[in-house]
Amino acid sequence: MAEYNHHLADNVDKKTELFDEDGASLGCFDWVICTAPNGQAIELMADSGFGEQTKITEAQMLACYTLMLGWDDITQLPETLNHLSNPSISQWDVAYLNESILDRIFIEHQKPAHAELLPSVTIHARNDWSEAHVDDDIESVQAQLLQAAQQALNWSADGAPSQIDCHRWRYAATLVEHKNKDNNSTNNQKSGILVDKQRQWIVSGDWCAQGNIESCYQMAKQTIEVLNKAR
User: What residues pair up with 122 in beta bridges, in sequence order?
Assistant: First the structure.
């Protein structure tokens, strides 16, 4: 993706002219919105004069490894997932794990409008574990996650998943460190986009809140509200 430079045009409209990495102008814009993860936003906005530049660095983005498992038929599901074949098992949609490198397990085929999916689950590793292993070989990570998943779901050889995939989300969760009155570190979540009203620039993204899917919606809503108020 081409990099861009920032230029505040000397006119009453305060338009911003953007350039690609070869110096070609991309045009002048009323507003510029950056939604890159904060590590990349720091570089993109460096030396631009962005009024909230220091706040970009407050958040630390943590990684998340995701393990995706699938079965060819619902009868092949391990008993911990198959409440249809074993009515004594209560139905659940999300499981939160303790004392594991895994954080939570989502049952995909039980989500609304997912009935046509083959039986499948998505498993998120803990963010701190993922960050500690962020540069590890993906096959090694997958093997460790699969072992932890087998322990959590307790499948036998007949109930082992037939489809296995692993993905690394490099920027997945937001961690912000603040100092309390006793000068001790406390972790809190950010809760808002960064706006430079003079230049009409916005730095936004899910990392401005908690780094989850809900944050995507919330930060987009805040961005739209700023633009509407500026009309």
Answer: 68, 106
Q: Kindly provide the b/e burial profile for residues 102-112, where b requires at least 16 CB atoms within 10 angstroms of the residue's own CB.
A: bbebbbbbbee
> CB atoms < 10 A from the CB of 163, how many?
12
Mean pLDDT in the chain? 85
Q: What global pTM score does this model have? A: 0.74
Helix (H, G, I), strand (E, B) or coil at 129: helix
Give the SS3 label for residue 30. coil
Q: What is the pLDDT of residue 192?
A: 92
Q: Which amino acid is at 69?
A: L
Q: The dihedral of CA 72, 74, 80, 81: what is its sign?
A: positive
User: What percentage of residues in the chain have a pLDDT greater than 90?
Assistant: 55
**Residues of 8-45 as b/e, b for ≥16 C-beta within 10 angstroms?**
eeeeeeebbbbbeeeeeeeeeeebbbbbbbbebbeebb
Query: What residue type is 37 in one-letter code?
Result: P
Question: Parallel, antiparallel, or unpaired: how do β-strands 32-34 and 201-203 relate?
Answer: parallel
Query: Distance between CA atoms of 97 and 126, rounded to whole angstroms?
Result: 9
Torsion sign, CA atoms 139, 144, 145, 146: positive
Q: CA 81 to CA 84: how far, in whole Å? A: 9
Assess contact for 177 and 57: CB atoms under 8 A. Answer: no
Return the sign of the alpha-carbon dihedral for residues 41, 42, 46, 50: positive
Residue type, 33: I
Over residues 148-176, the pLDDT tens digits come to 999 999 998 888 999 999 999 998 888 86
- Answer for the pair 16, 200: CB distance below 8 angstroms, yes or no: yes
